[in-house]
Amino acid sequence: MHKWNGKSLKIGDLVAETPIVQGGMGIGISLSGLASAVANEGGIGVISAAGIGMDQPDFGTDYISANNRALRKIIKRARELTNGIIGVNIMVAARNFDELAKSAIEEGIDIIFAGAGLPLNLPSLKTASSKTKLIPIVSSVRALKVITKKWIDKYNYIPDGFVLEGPMAGGHLGFSKDQVEDGEFSLENLIVPVVEELKKLEKSLGQKIPLIAGGGIYSGSDIKKILDLGADGVQMGTRFVATHECDADIKFKEMYVNAQKSDIRLIQSPVGLPGRAVHNNFIEEVKKGNKTPAKCPYNCIVTCKGEQSDYCIALALINAYKGKLENGFAFAGGNAWRVDKITSVKELVDSLEAEYIAAL
Ligand SMILES: Cc1cc2nc3c(=O)[nH]c(=O)nc-3n(C[C@H](O)[C@H](O)[C@H](O)COP(=O)(O)O)c2cc1C
């Protein structure tokens, strides 16, 4: 049991006694193993739907069915492993966004987190009887306003919460390279107008809209700082990679343990966004132009340049998940270099809670 000095995270009728959302991490990094372990510690465990059908025999031939089938299977497996709160993270830029969201809703997922684009149509995918909560991931108050207006005007639906992701996060980022390098865009600065906007909305709508903020949060005292700024919970990805329960190969986790600060760098992803990753030989070869243009086996991301890209990011991330880092790379948050060991999710959450209490 975790108490967090009474600071639970409430999303409608869902109550997470640990105010931490484990960020969805694709491809394959957060599946049923990691998500259920976090949920068992009172947090919100999140399955990443990105490329989730990679082990299905028809992944290359019937992409939509393969991914739907795998998503349903992995949600069911997570449910067998925990009675806690389980969410799914779906990229809006995924070609099969609608199908994945519908499958997750049919499986009774607790929450859908939707980022990498504005999930403008998400409420239309929900059935009347569904209790699934819908939470967009945004990087600006502007995106938050656009989504809220659209959902209310078109669907009469108030977002069940927002994740605000700052520029220190891992994976694809909602910022340009210049913005990432500009101190003005720190999570601490970004959070202030978002909290103000949500307060205004809550007043006019008569409903609480919880805010979860993340990107570079490392310690329990970081968590306290972000909650003190007005967030109701935090989203953390990187720290959960270096756990036994994380679904990636051990070599992926060891990339974090062995990384120096200078190894954590920005890349320009073929999907058209900057990303943050642990630098390795594969990334170096891409930069030098030594990778041949990609075959596009899946056509998975709407914004990807496909066969005009230097490489297929889906294949690179699947390779990394499997530990084949000569042919892929590990996405990582800005603080991944600080990770010095692999622990259990329980040990990690215990230590974060102890640090949080000590900082009060
Ligand atoms: C390996 C890795 C993969 C990620 N994949 C996704 C993803 O598929 N979808 C997404 O919305 N965010 C993704 N993220 C972002 C995380 O969900 C999380 O919000 C972010 O990393 C938080 O910052 P932190 O890692 O510094 O804690 C990924 C992050 C990492 C480290």
What does this molecule look like?
It is a single chain. By secondary structure, the protein is an alpha/beta fold. The chain has 2 domains: 266 residues, Aldolase class I (TIM Barrel, Alpha-Beta Barrel); 78 residues, no CATH class. It is 36% helix and 16% strand. It is built from 12 helices and 13 strands. Strands 3-11-10-8-7-6-5-4 form an 8-stranded parallel sheet. It has a 3-stranded antiparallel sheet with strand order 9-13-12, with no helix packed on it. Strand 12 and strand 13 form a beta hairpin. The protein binds flavin mononucleotide (FMN).
Strand content: 15-25%
Instruction: Tell me the total number of β-strands.
Output: 13
Structural class by helix and strand composition: alpha/beta
Small molecules bound in the structure, each named once: flavin mononucleotide
Strand order of the largest sheet: 3-11-10-8-7-6-5-4
Topology at a glance:
Elements: E1 9-11, E2 14-16, E3 20-22, H1 32-40, E4 44-48, H2 63-81, E5 85-91, H3 97-106, E6 111-115, E7 133-138, H4 141-155, E8 162-165, E9 171-172, H5 177-181, H6 187-205, E10 211-214, H7 220-228, E11 233-236, H8 238-241, H9 250-258, E12 264-268, E13 274-278, H10 281-287, H11 313-321, H12 345-359
Parallel strand pairs: 3-11, 4-5, 5-6, 6-7, 7-8, 8-10, 10-11
Antiparallel strand pairs: 1-2, 9-13, 12-13
Helix pairs in contact: 1-2, 2-3, 7-12
Bound molecules: flavin mononucleotide.
Flavin mononucleotide binds next to strand 5, strand 11 and helix 8.
